[in-house]
Design a protein that fits this description.
3 strands; 132 residues; 61% helix; three-stranded antiparallel sheet; 2 domains; alpha+beta; Arc Repressor Mutant, subunit A
């Protein structure tokens, strides 16, 4: 794996060096340390993003996939009303499943759920806030 990463870093550094020297004779272009360091940082970032994507999107069961989907919507919104969450879910999950997932996320400490009275209304809105 290290050999593959080293090869990728060399290729990226070469591309960066060529891009930085457009218009010059290609045989005169050299790959400098800044280009190599940048290529390594890019590969490190790319690996972390790949790992994050796997953690966020891979699931062993359908329930785990559903939980990750609900958690993603709440995390991206940071704070979302129950009605807005249900609208985003677009009937992919029934109300009982959503309730169970919300309880699970609350018990795990990933979210906080609270009710707030809507201004000018007798109704209360349920809100979910991402803590993760």
């Amino acid at each position: 794996m290290r050999a593959r990463l080293a090869d990728m870093a060399k290729r990226i550094a070469l591309i960066v060096s060529i891009g930085n020297n457009i218009g010059q004779d290609l045989t005169a272009i050299t790959v400098g340390l800044p280009a190599v360091e940048w290529a390594i940082r890019l590969l490190e970032w790319s690996a972390l993003e790949f790992e994050r994507g796997v953690d966020e999107n891979m699931a062993e069961t359908q329930h785990q996939a559903d939980t990750k989907m609900v958690a993603k919507y709440i995390r991206e919104a940071r704070r979302i009303r129950r009605a807005a969450l249900l609208k985003k879910l677009d009937h992919k999950l029934d109300a009982r499943m959503v309730k169970g997932i919300i309880e699970s996320l609350t018990d795990a400490g990933d979210i906080v759920a609270y009710e707030e009275k809507r201004e000018g209304s007798r109704q209360k809105s349920t809100w979910y806030v991402w803590k993760g």
